[in-house]
Every structure is written in structure tokens, then in C-alpha cells.
Amino acid sequence: MLKIPNEVIFSILRIIKQGNPGDTYYEAYRSHLEKRGESFFDLYHFCWSWGIEHKPKHILEIGTRTGISLCQLLSGYIDYSNIQRVVSCDVFNDGFISPELVKYNLKLCGIPRETIEKIEFKVGDSKVTVPQLEGTFDYILVDGDHSREGARVDLENASKRVAKDGVIVFDDIAPDGCSLIDVWEAFKDAHKDEYEFNQDLNGKGLGWCIRR
Predict the structure, then answer these.
(1) How many domains would you assign to the chain?
(2) pTM: predicted TM-score of the whole model, two decimal places
(3) CATH at 180
(4) What is the domain extent for residue 39?
(5) Spatial CB neighbours of 170, under 8 Å, sequence gap ≥ 6
(6) Phi, psi angles (nearest 5°) of residue 17
(7) Domain contains 145
(8) Splitting the chain (212 residues) into consecutive groups of 10 residues, what average pLDDT does each group show?
(9) Of 111, 113, 209, whose CA–CA distance to 163 is shortest?
(10) 3-class SS at 192?
(11) φ and ψ at residue 151, rounded to 5 degrees
């Protein structure tokens, strides 16, 4: 996996902060960087690395919020013409986030209009919307319901939708995140013969697994 400099992910966070002054993700990530220093590794580093090296064509996000992770992932592309499908599943119910805000932030980051228009927004509980999806995805982010049961269900539903050689990315497993390491370990035990597993706890904690 490519080592992505912190400056790269913060360049995107600064752009989004300028367009969304009330969003505090930039400040939160500065705190993580100050705590971890050069060992800091998180979802956004992964997004850049995976986007550059693999350029997934079928993308599913379970939990999108303002679209920062999608901005980071798609910023790793030069040619967007091979992207065939992007699906965003979120409840979008906190009065701030919305599909329109996701599209606005992607536009701020220079993602082409044609790519933004491909996004299918599935608004509602991911435990309902994800099982209704058809087809498979070569990149699935699980970053939605952070309760243990909700995260467990999201992981299992993702496992039914990931393509061969595709990746499932599971955020917030460390104490600096939402302490979902036990959910991740249980998923690893249940699917140890199906995936190649990796994790890094030098941030909010990230686990990822590649379908064999």
C-alpha cells in the first residue's frame, strides 16, 4: 500500500473546511495528527492509496456524511471514465448533511460533474437499503451505524455485496474512534477463509479485508 503524506489528506480537508466553515472535521483530524505524528494513519490515507492503486469502478459507501471520504477516494483518480457506479447510503437526518452537500463538496474538490451525477443516494437505514441493492462492488466502506449491532449487520451485508478481489473498509475500530474492534474481530473469525485481513490502529482505527 502506498504511504500517503498527511499533507495530501489535509489539502482536501482544508478545501472542504473553506466551503463548510461550521464543520469540525479539519480540527478533529489536526488533533489526531498532533497525537500520532508521522505514524498517523486513518481512513483518508487509505482512500487515497486505494484510489491511486486500484481505481475502483463500483463504489458503495455505507455512511457518507458530508462526503469527505468519497472526496479523498476520488481525488486519487486522473481518469474518471471507468467509474461505473457510485452508491451512497446514509440517513442524512442531522439537519446539516444532505446529498446536496455531498455533491457540493465533491464539486469543491474538482470531481467532474459527470462523475458526481452517477451517484445513487439511498436515503434511509442501511440495514434496509443495502440488502435492496443489486450487483456487487469492488470497494465498500462501512462507516454508518456505529452501534455494535448496527455495525455488525452492516459488515455482514457488505460481505454479501463485495466482488472477488474487492475490499471492505471498516472505520472507527480503535479507542480513538468508536471502539468497534470487537465487532471487527468477530467478523474476522467468522470469515477468516474468505478474506485477507489488515488493520491499523494509529488513528480512529481502520480495518480492511480483500475478498479472495
Answers:
(1) 1
(2) 0.97
(3) 3.40.50.150
(4) 6-211
(5) 142, 143, 151, 155, 180, 183, 184, 187, 206, 207, 208
(6) -65, -40
(7) yes
(8) 96 96 95 95 98 98 97 97 97 92 98 97 97 98 96 98 98 97 98 98 97 97
(9) 209
(10) coil
(11) -65, -40
